[in-house]
Specification:
Layout: H1 36-60, H2 63-69, H3 77-101, H4 103-122, H5 127-154, H6 161-189, H7 194-197, H8 199-213, H9 227-230, H10 234-244, H11 247-266, H12 276-301, H13 318-347, H14 353-364, H15 366-380, H16 385-406, H17 414-441, H18 447-481, H19 487-495, H20 505-540
Pfam families: MFS_1
Keywords: Membrane, Transmembrane, Transmembrane helix
InterPro entries: MFS, MFS_dom, MFS_trans_sf
């Protein structure tokens, strides 16, 4: 199907790659659960999805408390980055594992990993231990996220797809909204360790529900022949997985991302940008990016029996590439805002963690409203996606750049909340636009891969945003504060923001003003990537613009 033709939901194929009018679906989709088991299954899936959705934002308002307690504020962003890095790299890998070991088995394994390493994070005695546990928590979280979203769709008949998708989106939005507030409250009123430990009983409860309620062959009918039913025995399944999974592609992508983030993280902090280590990391990252693209092109052209991480035919779809770029460019401003703005309230405005979480609700509450607004505009009113995306970009740019100007002050003005509302509405709208577009602009057999690619790009944009923002912060603080403080004092501030309290009130004011300028630059970075979303709109723009027509 040409990406330049008029495309609607009624013209597209089902997720199994066959026409909606045919009766020869390879997998029966009548809904795996009915009655009371359906509600129990939805509860288990919803709880698991909520835990992964809340994980990024719940840490943002408690990050300062965590790193100060462990005396290593300078590496604070790695608490976020380590999770996002593995989370990004394993999203598509878990979907391939589910093809061979069945979705239920894969979901239970990933949920077990997420829950177990959440306990490890809560028991960490150093920041290094916490970062390692966060990385493994991200591996499990990736599987929970991708497999629960897919499972939500399959527990109901296809005709209820829109309803259940809204439920899943609402759960994720709820996690985004409650994360900063819960994280701040736990960090202030109790031990920060409960930010992670609370996942253990909730994850265990969800695991037991899913173990009992989901059918063994979920989400397929017992008579359906799937990849997992073709291969008997654990040994054959392992062999089949390594034969058909795009292991080289996954490793190349993960390696390229890891070295790029490491270079951004350590540049101008532990090492100079001109140092051999940083340069070598950037070169290695570039080599693996090229290797990844060449490998994906090779296996697609040779038609090898491998589940490609990125089917090369998608590279010729201009509309999809525009939407994929939109995923990436929305990931950075959303992640930077979620992580850095609560930190700013704590350090610059001397807010407590819970107070910072409450103030951040101006952004967090408006973002899901933007998601729902996009659904109404594109679904009920049938407005083309590109027009809605333009509206979201305008709101983001106006809100973020106006907030960055008011952020120069150490005082909090009422206008800042209004600007955060605008930015949240715009971010939610743009995120929803590109997410909803992807299934409409690719063939049915590519819908899952295309969505996973977009999600990985959005997470990669977020990881890069955190690393770049941290580099901006450290670089500016070293430059600005070296005039009034000696190098040891600057290093002390970078290791723990609590060190601000040891200085005189006059020096404290200068330090908070320096932090304010640095955080303002971070918000401007987010605003710049919001402007870059215009390129995505240009790529998806055509004579007959893509719109959604509900059948």
């Amino acid at each position: 199907m040409s990406p330049d033709s008029e495309m609607t939901m009624s013209e597209k194929q089902t997720p199994e790659g066959v026409s909606e009018t045919t009766s020869e679906d390879p997998i029966e989709w009548d809904g795996a659960l009915h009655g009371f088991p359906l509600y129990l299954g939805a509860l288990g899936l919803g709880l698991a999805l909520f835990l992964t959705g809340i994980e990024a934002t719940i840490v943002s308002t408690s990050l300062v408390t965590i790193t100060n307690d462990l005396d290593d504020f300078g590496r604070s962003s790695w608490v976020i980055t380590s999770y996002l890095l593995t989370y990004t790299g394993f999203l598509m890998i878990w979907s391939k594992i589910g093809d061979i070991w069945r979705v239920k088995t894969s979901l239970l394994v990933s949920l077990f990993m997420f829950t177990a390493f959440s306990g490890g994070c809560g028991g960490a005695q150093s920041l290094s231990q916490l970062i390692i546990c966060r990385a493994f928590q991200g591996v499990g979280g990736a599987g929970v996220y991708s497999l629960t979203l897919y499972s939500f769709v399959r527990i109901v008949p296809y005709r209820q797809y829109d309803t259940i998708s809204s439920v899943a989106g609402g759960i994720l939005s709820l996690g985004l909204v409650l994360g900063p507030l819960i994280g701040g409250a736990v960090a202030e009123k109790g031990s920060w360790r409960w930010v992670f430990l609370c996942n253990v009983p909730a994850g265990a409860f969800s695991w037991v529900l899913l173990l009992i309620v989901l059918p063994a062959n979920f989400p397929n009918a017992p008579s359906a022949q799937t990849a997992s039913s073709k291969y008997k025995g654990a040994g054959m399944k392992i062999k089949t997985f390594f034969q058909r999974a795009d292991t080289l592609g996954a490793l190349a992508l993960l390696t390229a991302s890891s070295f790029a983030i490491a270079a951004l993280q350590e540049g101008n902090f532990e090492y100079a940008w001109s140092s051999g280590l940083v340069i070598s990391f950037l070169v290695i990252s570039g080599i693996f990016w090229i290797a990844f693209l060449l490998w994906e092109w090779f296996i697609s052209k040779k038609d090898l029996d491998i589940y490609a991480m990125f089917p090369w035919r998608l590279a010729g779809n201009r509309i999809f590439l525009g939407a994929a770029l939109g995923f990436f460019t929305t990931g950075l401003p959303m992640t930077v805002s979620i992580i850095m703005i609560p930190q700013r309230f704590q350090i610059v405005n001397s807010c407590s963690p819970i107070d910072a979480g409450v103030r951040f609700l101006a952004y967090a509450l408006s973002s899901p409203v933007g998601i729902m607004t996009c659904s109404v505009l594109t679904g009920r009113l049938k407005i083309p996606f590109c027009y809605v995306a333009l509206g979201g970009i305008v709101l983001q740019v106006v809100g973020l750049f106006l907030f960055s100007e008011t952020a120069f002050s150490t005082d909090i003005s009422a206008a800042q909340y209004g600007y955060l509302v605008l930015a949240g509405l715009g971010t939610g709208t743009s995120v929803a636009v590109f997410y909803m577009m992807v299934p409409l602009v690719v063939d049915g057999k590519d819908q899952s891969i295309a969505l996973s690619t977009g999600l990985q790009l959005r997470m990669l944009g977020g990881v890069l945003g955190v690393a770049a923002s941290t580099t901006i912060l450290h670089n500016y603080l070293r430059s600005r504060l070296s005039v009034t403080l000696d190098p040891d004092q600057v290093s002390l501030l970078l290791s723990s923001s609590d060190a601000i309290g040891i200085f005189s009130p006059y020096i404290q004011l200068q330090i908070r003003q320096a932090y304010s300028v640095a955080y303002s630059a971070q918000v401007k970075l987010a605003g710049g990537f919001s402007v870059a979303q215009l390129l995505s709109v240009a790529m998806i723009w055509k004579r007959s613009n893509v719109r959604y027509l509900k059948r």
